[in-house]
């Protein structure tokens, strides 16, 4: 997959995720706000319906209270009349006009007064007999602490019109009076109040026991709130709002409880708000959100495509140039535009191409020089082969002299010539930079024997190195310069016979070779100067102890900085030089020769 495609897909994924998240969050929040707004409006509407019903019921209760608080009317009901004519005159002049005024002005369908006065019996006045006394409604009125209550709805006779009655005791003047007033109210009067506020929703008005007085949905009307699937939740609460599905339709259910007076306390007003209205608004909101999302996505795709093409065009050009470079086309330079990372990459590519051209030229010239040096080396090797005869001639000459001396009986000089030939042969021996310790000590033994012939009995020597250390690898001629210095500076000038001792010992993973003499020693200032020069990287050219520096340099070069020479001395008494080399890890030599220790 091309990087351009990857960039476009990656950016589109990010944009889709971000825009989708923002759109979802905004849509969800907007939906919640719309839902809250609709529920709030429905709650206000429900509160208005409850207030209207409460006010209307209060107006009817005021009518009953008017009779309750009118002492003259109460006295008329309780007074015993001598004959029917006297009672009728009182009824027609005082009682009947008051009741007619109530029915005409207060939208009351009928007013009935119940009394136990047999002398005051007319069309709107009912005599309380045993049937009425034993009726449930009468018992309810007489036992009600509030002095009145609203009945369940019923149908009038003979018109079959649905009404509800408010009934109240008339015992203001006489606390034991059994008189009761009953006001019949047409339910349609209350339903009109509900219809004004119940557009696009169902409203139910119920008594405190759940009996439904008004249900705006005539087709699905219920008689009691308990018939609703959520009736228990409504009757058990004061007010609330929740969502329910009824007959496969979703509704937001809101309910409130009237608590303004004891008479209406517990009455419920319930509203069913279809969520279709909410769904329509939410659908409109989601459609707008999707349209904005699609528009933002299209703009994002366009911008991402343009930016990706602009970015990858230069990368593609750089890739083409790299392919040309892979085919040894070292004239492939890219055109640098801008100052971003891609431009910096182009500059580095051009710099790399120039450097490659320079390196290829240098490598080509180096190869020519190498071949020329190889030819010269061949010539030198040929010359070396031609001159190899010279050492052999020298060895043969020394051996011839040694033979002549043996024939003449001069064994001492013959031995010296033999040792000289042996030493010379070892110095010119081919091989690597290291040899076995046994071979090095063999050469030192020959060298010391020659020096003994030179100085006579001026010194003796001893070589005491454990046999198991004889296969250790040491630099060639690493002991000879130290022994030579011991003879030249410590023994030759000493008036007393001296001794040189070469010993070896293990210390951890190191092998220590100790060369000690009891000659003149080294003065403190001179010893400090020698030690300083050995620690320094500067050459000791021209110095009397250049051999020590050479050995020190070779030891550190072969084995590392932790190895080398250590010199101690006491002026006029002795000098000791210690060589430290690594012992662990060296291959053991299979053939270790025993050294002639003198």
TrEMBL record:
Subcellular location: Cell membrane
Xref: PROSITE patterns: HAMP
Alphabetized CDD domains for the sequence: HAMP
Gene3D superfamilies, sorted: 6.10.340.10, Histidine kinase-like ATPase, C-terminal domain (3.30.565.10), PAS domain (3.30.450.20)
Parts of the chain that traverse the membrane: 288-312
Membrane association type: Multi-pass membrane protein
InterPro entries: Bact_2-comp_sensor_kinase, HAMP_dom, HATPase_C_sf, HATPase_dom, Sig_transdc_His_kin_internal
Annotated keywords: Cell membrane, Kinase, Membrane, Phosphoprotein, Transferase, Transmembrane, Transmembrane helix
Lineage: superkingdom: Bacteria
HAMP domain ranges (all copies): 309-361
Principal localisation: membrane
SUPFAM superfamilies: ATPase domain of HSP90 chaperone/DNA topoisomerase II/histidine kinase, HAMP domain-like
Phosphoprotein recorded as keyword: yes
Name of the featured protein: HAMP domain-containing protein
Species of provenance: Paenibacillus glycanilyticus
């Amino acid at each position: 997959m091309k990087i351009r495609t990857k960039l476009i897909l990656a950016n589109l994924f990010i944009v889709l995720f971000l825009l989708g998240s923002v759109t979802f969050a905004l849509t969800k929040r907007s939906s919640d706000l719309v839902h809250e707004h609709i529920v709030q409006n429905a709650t206000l509407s429900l509160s208005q319906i409850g207030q209207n019903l409460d006010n209307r019921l209060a107006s009817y209760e005021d009518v009953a209270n008017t009779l309750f608080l009118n002492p003259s009317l109460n006295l008329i009901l309780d007074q015993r009349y001598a004959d029917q004519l006297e009672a009728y005159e009182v009824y027609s002049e005082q009682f009947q006009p008051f009741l007619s005024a109530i029915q005409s002005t207060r939208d009351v369908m009928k007013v009935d007064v119940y009394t136990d006065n047999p002398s005051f019996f007319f069309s709107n006045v009912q005599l309380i007999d045993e049937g009425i006394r034993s009726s449930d409604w009468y018992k309810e009125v007489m036992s009600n602490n509030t002095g009145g209550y609203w009945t369940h709805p019923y149908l009038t006779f003979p018109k079959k019109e649905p009404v509800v009655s408010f009934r109240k005791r008339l015992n203001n003047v006489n606390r034991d009076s059994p008189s009761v007033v009953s006001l019949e109210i047409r339910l349609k009067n209350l339903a009109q109040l509900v219809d004004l506020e119940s557009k696009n929703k169902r409203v139910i008005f119920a008594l405190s026991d759940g009996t439904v007085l008004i249900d705006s949905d005539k087709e699905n009307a219920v008689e009691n709130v308990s018939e609703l699937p959520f009736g228990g939740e409504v009757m058990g609460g004061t007010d609330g709002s929740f969502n329910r599905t009824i007959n496969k339709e979703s509704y937001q259910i809101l309910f409130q409880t009237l608590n303004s007076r004891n008479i209406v306390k517990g009455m419920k007003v319930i509203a069913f708000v279809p969520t279709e209205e909410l769904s329509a608004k939410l659908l409109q909101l989601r459609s707008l959100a999707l349209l904005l999302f699609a528009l933002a996505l299209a703009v994002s795709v366009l911008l991402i495509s343009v930016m990706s093409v602009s970015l990858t065009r230069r990368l593609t050009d750089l890739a083409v140039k790299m392919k040309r470079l892979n085919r040894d086309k070292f004239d492939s330079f890219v055109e640098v535009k801008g100052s971003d990372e891609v431009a910096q990459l182009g500059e580095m590519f051009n710099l790399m191409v120039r450097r490659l051209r320079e390196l290829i030229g240098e490598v080509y010239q180096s190869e020519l020089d190498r071949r020329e040096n190889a030819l010269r080396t061949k010539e030198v090797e040929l010359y070396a082969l031609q001159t190899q005869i010279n050492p052999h001639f020298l060895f043969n000459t020394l051996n011839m002299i040694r033979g002549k001396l043996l024939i003449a009986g001069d064994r001492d000089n013959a031995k010296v010539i033999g040792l000289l030939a042996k030493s010379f042969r070892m110095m010119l021996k081919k091989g690597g930079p290291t040899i076995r310790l046994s071979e090095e000590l063999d050469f030192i033994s020959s060298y010391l024997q020659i020096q003994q012939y030179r100085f006579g009995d001026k010194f003796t020597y001893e070589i005491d190195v454990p046999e198991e250390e004889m296969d250790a690898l040491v630099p060639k001629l690493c002991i000879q310069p130290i022994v030579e210095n011991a003879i030249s500076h410590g023994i030759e000038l000493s008036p007393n016979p001296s001794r040189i001792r070469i010993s070896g010992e293990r210390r951890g993973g190191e092998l220590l070779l100790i060369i000690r003499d009891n000659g003149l020693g080294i003065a403190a200032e001179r010893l400090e100067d020698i030690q300083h020069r050995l620690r320094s990287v500067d050459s000791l050219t021209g110095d009397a102890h250049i051999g020590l520096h050479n050995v020190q340099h070779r030891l550190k070069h072969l084995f590392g900085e932790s190895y080398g020479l250590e010199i101690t001395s006491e002026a006029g008494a002795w000098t000791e030089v210690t060589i430290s080399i690594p012992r662990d890890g060296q291959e053991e030599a299979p053939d270790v020769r025993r050294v002639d220790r003198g």
